[in-house]
Amino acid sequence: MSMPQTTGPQTGHRASKSLLEVDAGTRRRNRAEARFRSYGIAAIGVAVLALVLLVTSVLSNGLGAFRQTFVIMDITLAADTLDPSGTGDVDAMKRVSTIGYGKLLKTALIADLESRGIPTEGMSEKEIAGLLSKEAPAQLRNMVLADPSLIGQTIRFKTYATGRVDGYFKGRVSMESAERDSNVTPAQLELADRMRAKGLMSVGFNWGFLFGPDASELRPEAAGLGIAILGSAYMMILVLVLALPIGVAASIYLEEFAPQNRWTDLIEVNIANLAAVPSIVFGILGLALFINFMGLPQSAPVVGALVLTLMTLPTIIIATRASLKSVPPSIRSAALGVGASKMQTVFHHVLPLAMPGILTGTIIGLAQALGETAPLLLIGMVAFVRDFPSAPPEGFMDPAAALPVQVYNWTQRADPAFVERASGAIIVLLAFLLTMNIVAIVLRRRFERRW
Amino acid sequence: MMKDNRIEERTVDMDMTETKISARNVQVYYGETHAIRDVDVDILDKTVTAFIGPSGCGKSTFLRCLNRMNDTIPICRVEGTILLDGEDIYDKRVDPVQLRARVGMVFQKPNPFPKSIYDNVAYGPRIHGLARSKAELDDIVEKSLRRAALWSEAKDRLDQPGTGLSGGQQQRLCIARAVATEPEVLLMDEPCSALDPIATAQVEELIDELRRDYSVVIVTHSMQQAARVSQKTAFFHLGSLVEFGETGEIFTNPQDPRTESYITGRIG
Ligand SMILES: Nc1ncnc2c1ncn2[C@@H]1O[C@H](COP(=O)(O)OP(=O)(O)OP(=O)(O)O)[C@@H](O)[C@H]1O
Ligand SMILES: [Mg+2]
User: Fold this and answer.
1) What angle do CA B193, B194, B198 make, to 5 degrees?
2) How many structural domains is chain B composed of?
3) What is the tens place of the pLDDT at every residue in A45-82?
4) Whole-complex ipTM
5) Do B104 and A335 touch (CB under 8 A)?
6) For residue B163, is it within any domain?
7) Can you give the pTM of this predicted structure?
8) pLDDT score of B200
9) Which of residues 106-165 of B touch A (CB under 8 A)?
């Protein structure tokens, strides 16, 4: 038992320690640091897990919406049923309703099945025709009215299979569930299997989901996002055009020009509060102000954009002011010192340096606006819209839908096929957000390179 | 006629020059703090005036009064009269922007714009419309960089960022930027505090050259520098102007005991 001899008086606990031994205090500090690091890693792990779960669930539910079961059949567009007057006059042809086209489709499908030798024994004509989407007659009618020269020809017509058959190929519908289902019979599903084997039915990418209009409750297979995407795009354009200049101008004024007094303090507090106001409140405001008072049309992108602008402004103002504030004051002194005016100082020096932050803030604000649902419900963007809005600027006033509202809308519908479509719409929404973020990053890089 | 005493060599005949800036009874407050009290000073044309004094005595504050840079500090209040060529620069009708084009400034900390070296120097001439063509602007940039003793180092990298220069080079760039606008008065707040002796000598050379056309006010912590470059020296202490006079007089025969103890290194 020999203790190391200490020579001289002890001066603190470090006195005789070698650098090669770690002392107790350092060991404790290192342990605390390691602990903290593991908390951080755990937190990131939870976040990543949540993200992975979200993405996988959305993708597994929603990817199916981009694929659809189609019936591809040959159909002879008989002149005597489609153009009874025989004049080729489109107005006269319009008198033939979808019921007429439906009959034509039914006979054509039965004939097609027969000619390809697909047995249909024991099935009624109605059952066979039930394999086609209820949308099919309207589709054919639009096609013929758009191009009357088709009459008399035999064409290859591609249309949606009914949602239940589509669900059967995607695994949503089974023989057992079909037994209990009044909308589909097991015999129909078996026929669909045979048709698919003979090439009369196929599953492929569905552009109609991205570009087509919404469809009614009974036709999930025909429901598309076209109007919602267009409506959201219109709103984003308007929000950008309205909110960016107003927000940046307000921030520049508040940050660089406004005197520091009770009024500006009050405005500042109010802007911070506005950023925290629930979005539905903006919806009520929009309903009262833009629709009831100003008389703007319901469901119009312009109203949605105005409401979303009000909602986005505080975000943009707060982000812009923060990035203006982060420009070092010495740059302002330098510019003022060579005789630049206040405005020259701001526009030549401060604003370019604050640009990356402003753009990031704006795009975050836009992304928020893109995903906003509640205020749009209140201003009527939840309405069922079948007609595409026209091109801007008139189109800004036409009724349209919006992506998040469409998601909400579809989740409310009874047919399980709409669950898949809602998830598909979420994928589109996420793709939009991702694109916006990439644009933000690219712009940021571009502006930052100008040091 | 060669004299080996630089102080005397650079002394001008005071009767020949006229007052450029005349400050009377100047008070500066930062909120409640009284930072400058009762300062009376006459800054002559074609003369270098040095402000010396211990740190925090108000040299920079007073310097900023002369081109109204204090306007940019919200809590700062200036009282008294400051005349430039007989006109009150704090008059309501005066636009400080116009004033600052005539009274240029080099700041204590180098503050180049985050732009190219060329654009840093060309900025002032551009906004004041001093150059009619690109060639003229190029000339101004070159002349200014030469005067600031930066040309040889910067001529091959004019398009590179001014913020990428060393601290001393940045300060010379700021000097070039200030002289490019051809101010009548140049205020320099410790322009050499980040410079090596060679660059310092070059800047002092520049100051001496500027004196031919302009009036220069320089704040410095170096007694030797004040003695070398200035003809007039003002000694500030705790916000007051203690002594103001010929540089030679101040350094050889100070009237106030505080001045004496400062220049001999006993306070400060
Ligand atoms: N922006 C400001 N706000 C409040 N007080 C200030 C401000 N600038 C300077 N002061 C105060 O005014 C006094 C004078 O400061 P000033 O910067 O003029 O000193 P200085 O003589 O230039 O010092 P140094 O030699 O260290 O640069 C100091 O007490 C300082 O604290
Ligand atoms: Mg100072």
Assistant:
1) 95
2) 1
3) 999 999 999 999 989 888 888 989 999 988 888 888 88
4) 0.86
5) no
6) yes
7) 0.81
8) 87
9) 107, 109, 111-115, 123-124, 127-128, 161, 163
